[in-house]
């Protein structure tokens, strides 16, 4: 009976710890994420969807804007998973590369901009807690992670361009490199 009681106490303790963590998030990170989301939606409403669309179309023209600027702006303004919708403004050829860069950016920027990927915020919070326990600044790590991530996301997007070209050639498929949006 002792083992069953200990198991039941441990089982309930798991949920009690989860509830305490949840409540701590409700008084700390959740309001921050909520306000960031409101701010981004307000900014998009203020700028207008037409201007945001125009930014995306212009960004599609070269690899730097396509894999650095567009992923940053779309993740910052729209968050995950909505940031992937900006690929609709890209030619078919560049969509796989944009997806590669965007998917990585939603992870690597989470420490600085938690509203981008709140569904995976627990990963960053776990890392940040360990860094804080070591007496280090978690924001410094978040900024470094984001900067390295931006560079690697750009490289990943551009390499995917070459991979897409190789697969297209191998499969005898031709994907358009011209923007053709019917909004």
Automatic annotation (TrEMBL):
Keywords: Membrane, Transmembrane, Transmembrane helix
Pfam families per record: EII-GUT
Transmembrane segments: 22-47, 68-90, 142-168
Classification via InterPro entries: PTS_IID_sorb (IPR004699)
GO biological process, one term: phosphoenolpyruvate-dependent sugar phosphotransferase system
Coiled-coil stretches: none
Any Gene Ontology CC annotation: membrane
KW Transmembrane helix (keyword) present: yes
Entry protein name: PTS system glucitol/sorbitol-specific IIC component
Organism phylogeny: Bacteria, Bacillati, Bacillota, Bacilli, Lactobacillales
